[in-house]
Specification:
The protein is an alpha/beta fold and about 260 residues long. Helix content is about 35%, strand content about 15%. Strands 2-1-6-5-8 form a five-stranded parallel sheet. The protein starts with a strand and ends in a 10-residue tail after the last helix. The structure holds ligand 9D3. Ligand 9D3 binds next to strand 5.
Length: about 260
């Protein structure tokens, strides 16, 4: 999969391809990152890429010309049509399902906004979709591009080992993950739940499912609402609630 990233800060975005899972994906040749800096097409001595907003107001707006020229250079370099995503505060909040769709596309351009925003005519004429990281204020779209690249890289065939299959991840199932433990058996005065030491793999599977359901119910009820729970899951969630009533930390504020 190849990403063409239009950004005023290329070194920020390419850093995501230098370590960890994404770094390995780049080295394996399964992930290709190319950057295009609108500054290289900026006008005048200062290679300006922004100007004051029509109608007045604070801040500056990214101009159509340099962005369009940078994207045009990326399109000219492509053998397949580019699917163009702009990272903006007005976009759809990114969800795992959107990323699963995106990795099916061979060529994706990510356009990173800066300043107060991007000239709307660029969005209308050149951009297929707008994506956002969520409801908080960042100073530009670069972190959004890095999030998209990182999340896609681990979905590409061969990038993750079998042990850490992307299909088993939290969110791929619509639930938060269960708690994890490793050696030693006691840490900070707390023992590992005994079921995990017992070797009854059916019991372990049920315990993990129960914890995942329970934690999702407590922390992210919005996720659980989307989930169609079967009778077995409903029973496990009931078990979790009963356990929680028995002198857990939350007894007084139950339900
Ligand atoms: C005053 C209104 N603000 C819009 C919410 C101004 C503004 C804030 C931040 C305009 C641009 C930006 C820069 N942010 C991004 O480019 C951005 C972003 C974000 O701020 N939050 C979540 N996701 C994203 S993706 C790109």
């Amino acid at each position: 999969m190849r990403f063409d990233i239009v950004t005023l800060f290329p070194e920020l975005v390419t850093a995501v391809g230098e370590s960890g899972v994404t770094g390995r994906a780049v080295q394996q040749g399964r992930l290709v990152l190319e950057t295009w800096n609108p500054r290289d097409w900026g006008a005048g001595f200062h290679q300006a890429v922004d100007d004051r907003p029509y109608g007045g107001g604070p801040g500056m707006v990214m101009q159509y010309g340099p962005l369009a020229s940078a994207l045009e250079a990326a399109r000219a370099d492509a053998t397949a049509p580019l699917h163009v995503i702009a990272l903006t505060p007005q976009g759809r909040p990114i969800r795992q399902a959107m990323l699963r769709e995106l990795v099916r596309k061979p060529r994706v351009a990510l356009v990173c906004g800066r300043y107060e925003g991007i000239d709307e005519r660029f969005i209308e004429a050149q951009v297929d979709e707008e994506w956002s990281l969520g409801d908080y204020v960042l100073s530009g779209g670069e972190l959004g591009a890095m999030v998209v690249i990182d999340a896609c890289a681990r979905l590409l065939p061969g990038v993750l080992g079998h042990a850490d299959s992307a299909g088993q991840d939290s969110f791929s199932e619509g639930l938060l993950d269960c708690p994890h433990y490793t050696r030693p058996e006691v840490a900070a005065g707390r023992a590992v739940p005994s079921v995990l030491l017992g070797g009854d793999h059916g019991a372990i599977r049920r315990w993990r499912r129960r914890e995942a359901l329970g934690r999702t119910w407590e922390r992210r009820p919005d996720l659980l609402a989307r989930e169609e729970l079967g009778v077995e899951d409903l029973a496990l969630l009931d078990e979790y609630r009963v356990e929680r009533r028995k002198g857990g930390p939350h007894t007084e504020s139950d339900d």
